[in-house]
Amino acid sequence: xxxxxxxxxxxxxxxxxxxxxxxxxxxxxxxxxxxxxxxxxxxxxxxxxxxxxxxxxxxxxxxxxxxxxxxxxxxxxxxxxxxxxxxxxxxxxxxxxxxxxxxxxxxxxxxxxxxxxxxxxxxxxxxxxxxxxxxxxxxxxxxxxxxxxxxxxxxxxxxxxxxxxxxxxxxxxxxxxxxxxxxxxxxxxxxxxxxxxxxxxxxxxxxxxxxxxxxxxxxxxxxxxxxxxxxxxxxxxxxxxxxxxxxxxxxxxxxxxxxxxxxxxxxxxxxxxxxxxxxxxxxxxxxxxxxxxxxxxxxxxxxxxxxxxxxxxxxxxxxxxxxxxxxxxxxxxxxxxxxxxxxxxxxxxxxxxxxxxxxxxxxxxxxxxxxxxxxxxxxxxxxxxxxxxxxxxxxxxxxxxxxxxxxxxxxxxxxxxxxxxxxxxxxxx
Amino acid sequence: xxxxxxxxxxxxxxxxxxxxxxxxxxxxxxxxxxxxxxxxxxxxxxxxxxxxxxxxxxxxxxxxxxxxxxxxxxxxxxxxxxxxxxxxxxxxxxxxxxxxxxxxxxxxxxxxxxxxxxxxxxxxxxxxxxxxxxxxxxxxxxxxxxxxxxxxxxxxxxxxxxxxxxxxxxxxxxxxxxxxxxxxxxxxxxxxxxxxxxxxxxxxxxxxxxxxxxxxxxxxxxxxxxxxxxxxxxxxxxxxxxxxxxxxxxxxxxxxxxxxxxxxxxxxxxxxxxxxxxxxxxxxxxxxxxxxxxxxxxxxxxxxxxxxxxxxxxxxxxxxxxxxxxxxxxxxxxxxxxxxxxxxxxxxxxxxxxxxxxxxxxxxxxxxxxxxxxxxxxxxxxxxxxxxxxxxxxxxxxxxxxxxxxxxxxxxxxxxxxxxxxxxxxxxx
Lengths: 429, 429
Description:
The structure is a homodimer of 429-residue chains.
Chain A (H helix, E strand, L loop, with lengths): L3 E10 L19 E9 L7 E7 L4 H9 L2 H4 L4 H6 L1 H9 L2 H4 L6 H22 L3 H6 L3 H7 L11 H11 L3 H11 L1 E9 L5 H13 L4 E5 L4 H15 L4 E5 L6 H9 L9 E2 L7 H11 L4 E3 L6 H9 L5 E2 L8 H15 L2 E2 L8 H16 L8 E3 L12 E3 L2 E3 L12 H7 L7
Parallel strand pairs in A: 4-5, 4-11, 5-6, 6-7, 7-8, 8-9, 9-10
Antiparallel strand pairs in A: 1-2, 2-3, 4-13, 12-13
Helix pairs in contact in A: 1-6, 4-6, 6-16, 8-9, 10-17, 11-12, 13-14, 15-16
C-alpha cells in the first residue's frame, strides 16, 4: 500500500517589486511569491504532487507554516485511498474543527488546504497520465458532485440541481473537447496596465497586446482620477476602437466613491469594473452594480469561499465571476463555485497572473467549458506575461488564446532550479 | 526616546478536550489556546503590553507565526509615538499590502494584527494607570473616531454620524460610569450547556447557574434533534419559568434546515438562536431571521471584520451582535463595530468564554455603555467559568454581573507561571 511519506514546503519569492510588475492602487510593490508544497509517497515509481498558494511577499512564510499544519492529515495515509475520494479528504481538512476556527473557511488556513488539495489533484492527474482539465472532464456527473461540498449552498444550489447541470452538458463533452484542442480558450491581458508603468511603457505594451492577438486588455485604476482618464485615453488610442478595455480598482473605493468615480469613466465604454470595493461587501457590490449598469461588475480573486460566491450570485452583485485557483480551498471548492455560476447563468472569467495562476486556473476553465457550463463565447482567462518560465509546463498562450495543456498534472509544478534559486532567505534579524 | 525592543510570542494551550468543556455541534473537542504576544520596550520602568488570539488548539502555532510576521512593524519603533496614535498604527498594519493579501482583513493575519493592537492598548492603559474601559471612556468623541477606520463603512456610517452618536452620549458618561461601578454589567452563562455534558451534569449546572444569579443561560444545539428537545426540557425544568434560555447551533445548519429545526424549538420560548449557519452568510441569516421572527438571531464570534458586521446590520440579518475581542483586528476595529451597532440600534451582547475572552471583551462592553450606546438594560456579556485563574486580573463576576476591572491594562495578561506551564510542546514528529 503506497503511503504519503512527506509533505515539504518552500517559501519561494520572486523580487517583482524591483520592476513594479503587478503594481496597482492597493498593492504598490508586490513580490510575487508561492507558499509551495510537494507531496511524496514511499513508492519511488510514483510522481510527486505539487501545489501552492500565491501571495505577494511578506507573510509567505506564515502561509507555508499553515500548510505544514496539515502534515498530520497527510503523512502516513494510504495514498490510493486518499486520491480515490478527494471529496471526502477535502471535507476532512476543511471540517477539522480546531483548524477551522482559524478562518473559518477563509484566509491563510483555508488557502493552505487549497494548496494541499491541489497537490493531491496534481498527483492524481499525473498518475492517470492526464492533464487535470481532461481528468475532471472525464468524470461522471455523480463523481463530480461528490467532489463538491454543498454545505451552506443548498438555498442556492442543491446536489440534484448540480447533477442536472452536469447531465445537460454531458452529450456535448466530446465536441467541445475537440474544439478546445483546435481553437484554444480565449485570453485577455493585464500585462500593459500596471499602475507603476509610465505612459510610454503603457502605450507600447498596449500596442504589443493588440499585435499578440488579445481582444481585451485591462488597466489598473483607482489612484488619482486624472491619471485614470489620461491612461485610458492613451490605451484607447494605442489599441484602436475594436479592442475592449476593462478596468480594475483593486478594492480601492467605498460604495459611493466607486459610483462617482465610475461615472467619470463612462465615456470609455468599459468591458467591466473589477473589485470596486471590499471583496467581502456583497451588498456594496450589489449597490454599485445597480448604479453603474449596464457596466458589468467583476470580482473573485479575493472571494474567500463558496459562501461568499453564493451570495454575490444571489444578490446579482457581480456579473463576471473571476475564479481564482489559490484563494479558496483548491480544486474541489472551485468546482462548487463553477456549479453555482452555471446555476445562476453568470460568466466565469478567471483571475490569473501572479505566480502560476495562469498555469493552474486554465484547467478549471477548460473543465467548465467541456463539462459544466458548455460556454466559451462570453469568457476569457486573464493572462499576464510574467514568471511562466519557472514552471515545468508553462501556459501555452498564442494569438490571444490559451491552448490546452496536454502534459499530465495540474500545471502547478515549479522547476527544481527555480525553487532553489528563489527560496527566500530571511534577512538576519 | 523609548523604543520597542522585543515582540515575543508564546503558543499556550490548555488541554480542555479532556473534560469536553467547550464542546459543541461543530467543535467536539477543543483545546482552548492562546497565541500570545508580549511587547517590551527598552525602558525598564515601562510595563509590558500583552495580547492574544484565542484559538481552539491545532494551528495555534501558525497563529503565533502570523503575529511574529508583524515584528518588523513594531520592533525599533518609537513607543510613545506609536501609542499616541493607535488609529494610524492600526491602519499601517491592516493596510500593509503584502500582508493584507493573506486575508484580506480576515482570518489568521487579521487576528494577528488584533493581538498586537490589543497588546499596545494594554501597554497604553497600564502607562495611563487605568483599566482600558476607563481609558477609552475618557477620550473625546474626536479622539475615538480617529481610532476607527471608516474605509468600506461610509455607505452605512460616516465619521460625522459616528461623532454625533458619541457627542449625544457625552453628557451621561459620568452617571453611567458611577452606575457601572456600583451595579456591574449583566452577564449570562454558557457553563451548563456544552454538548459533551451528560443530562445529570446539565441539570446540576443549570441549577447552579440560577443560584449564581444569572438571568439567562445558553445551551448548545444542532446535533441530534431529539437531544435538543430533551436537553431543553431538562434545562427548563431545572431553571424554572423565570430564567431565559438561548441556544447556539455553532454554524451547523443550512438555511432551510435552520428554519425547520428552529420551528421544532418554538415551544421553548428561546431568548435567541445563535450562529444558525455560516458566519459569512449575510443573506442566509437574513432569510432565517425573517422566517423565525420574532425569535432574535445572534452572531458575531466569527464575524471576520467590520465589513461583514456592516452588512449583517444593513440586511437586518442579526438582532444580537456578539462582539468578540480577538476575531477582528483588535480594539480599534471593535470600536468601529460598536459605532455601527449604535447607528443601527442593535444590541451588543459580547461573545466570551474561551481563554481570556471574558477578561478582554468586558472592557469594550463597558466602554460602549459609558460612551457609545449608553445602554445596558437589554445587554449581557457571556460568561463561562473556565481558565480565569490563569489571568493576572480575572474577570470579577458576582451575582450574575461583571464588576468593572479597576487594575490598569486591557485585562489580557496571563500569569507568568501559566505561560510557562501551558506552553505547548510539539509532539516529536
